[in-house]
Design a protein that fits this description.
The chain is an alpha+beta fold. It has nine helices and twelve strands.
């Protein structure tokens, strides 16, 4: 037996029952009027006949609200709404994305689920939207350590030419440096969670704003020696700011280190380069939400693959992502 042998990964009725237990733990709630009282179960209802299905398809999980008299299923008001993909395949996709540390490409998903590539690509973006938490609570606190660092991934859509020695400079021959690259800044509470930001450009002002809005003033901040972080201590944004000098091959000094956030970037870049390979800049924030989600629900924090999948499904409500909004260069 394997995890994917669970009935709700193969049977549509079981898939609806599983999702309802997560979205409606205290019973059905009408997504149209919010009624959590009397709701009717509509069983045996079938869709209209079609060439593919002359007898129609059974509409599993169909309900009717006693207040507004409208019909609905657990899909309504979620990222699954209006999708023609069977719900059990959605649950399989959620499990695959939640359990794969470096992600699952849309090409791999379309082969595994036997859907088109475009459908798999759109499914993954909907699930990334479900993974997005939107949490605003500050990181750290008295005596706690928050690590901060920046990284660069991928070229910006419209690179700006830089003049060096009279000629144009597009970056070092090794591909290093921030020139015309997409900037990502991440905060990691040591032993806890991560929060990442795709910013137009990594600047001191941007760093100070992120720290002010996301880090508790009683926290200890650990960074490298980059000048981006020079003024965080001077402005009283944190209780203490300590740095390690990577340029001098210093990576740990006592408990001062930025290894946790560096480890997060390591997994993020391996996933983006090895699994996804290409990502349009306008989609980068969703990929960051995906890697943040898996880091924040990792084994080290006591969350296994099935619990992580349930966490994805618990985040589907109140979010919609249409193909018009999400589509672009489908390179994932």
């Amino acid at each position: 037996m394997s995890v994917l042998s669970n009935k709700y990964f193969h049977d549509e009725a079981a898939a609806f029952a599983k999702l309802e237990s997560i979205v409606w733990p205290e019973g059905p709630t009408c997504p149209h009027c919010g009624n959590a009282g009397k709701v009717y179960e509509l069983k045996g209802v079938r869709s209209k006949p079609s060439k593919k299905n002359p007898e129609g398809v059974e509409r599993h999980g169909l309900k009717k609200c006693a207040e507004c008299r409208k019909q609905f299923t657990v899909r309504v008001g979620t990222v699954f709404e209006s999708s023609h993909v069977e719900l059990h395949k959605w649950l399989q996709a959620a499990y695959l994305m939640a359990s794969s540390k470096k992600g699952v490409s849309a090409h791999q998903m379309h082969r595994a689920l036997e859907v088109t590539y475009k459908t798999a690509w759109f499914m993954e973006h909907r699930l990334r939207e479900a993974m997005r938490s939107g949490a605003l609570d500050p990181f750290g606190g008295a005596g706690k350590v928050v690590e901060m660092d920046e990284t660069y991934f991928g070229r910006v859509k419209k690179p700006t030419p830089h003049k060096v020695m009279g000629g144009e400079f597009s970056g070092s021959r090794f591909g290093r440096g921030p020139s015309n690259k997409r900037a990502v800044i991440s905060l990691v509470e040591r032993g806890g969670k991560v929060r990442s930001f795709h910013v137009p450009k990594a600047t001191r002002a941007g760093v100070e704003k992120i720290v002010a809005e996301n880090v508790d003033k009683e926290s200890r901040l650990h960074t490298d020696e980059s000048q981006l972080y020079n003024k965080t201590k001077q402005k009283g944004l944190v209780a203490d700011h300590e740095t390690v000098r990577h340029s001098a091959d210093e990576y740990v000094r006592g408990d001062v280190t930025s290894n946790s956030v560096e480890n997060y970037f390591s997994v993020f870049k391996r996933g983006m380069r090895g699994t996804y390979q290409h990502c349009a800049e306008k989609h980068l924030h969703r990929y960051l939400a995906e890697f943040d989600f898996r880091f924040n629900n990792r084994i080290a924090l006591g969350v296994d693959d099935m619990e992580r999948t349930d966490a994805v499904l618990s985040g589907i409500s109140g979010k919609r992502l249409t193909y018009r909004i999400s589509c672009g260069t489908a390179n994932a």
